[in-house]
Known about the structure:
Elements: E1 16-21, H1 25-43, H2 50-69, E2 77-84, E3 87-94, H3 118-125, E4 128-132, E5 139-148, E6 151-152, H4 165-172
Amino acid sequence: MKKQASTYEPHLPAPEFMIQLSSTRRGARLARTLAVQQLTEWCGIPYDSDLARTVALVTAELASNAITHGHLPGRDFRLTVRLLPHAVRIEVTDTRPESLPLMPAAGPASAATTSGRGLLLVEAYANRWGCVVRDVYTKTVWAEVAVVNGRAAQPRHRDGTDIDVHQNSHRVM
């Protein structure tokens, strides 16, 4: 019997970045900046790449929701970014587990409204997203941005059709 060489490689944990930030606009801006900075360090992609812009947008929306809907006075939120084999996972943990995110409205938002589009953007740009309540003190809203050959996967509408990122960029950014 022939002896085969073992090609076993120990399971290495996914690279992870975690930071506690103040539940303020400044904390949300810092979350977006730090997520992109960490991604560029891990992947060596430019700050102005589609993947970096997508991660910035998704992080900004999740952090904004945490400071708007998940904030308790004196409590921070936590940003976690993980580099998975085929995706970047962004997690934002806040202090309001009873305030779960609502599914985005099916139709387009009224032009007169100034809010309510955040999770619609997350749904469009992230490959998948969700919410987890692990204890009575916190909830984590997460999103995964698919990475295809070092680039963000093409965002899609709910019906499966592609979103033209360049056409909509003036409304999104």
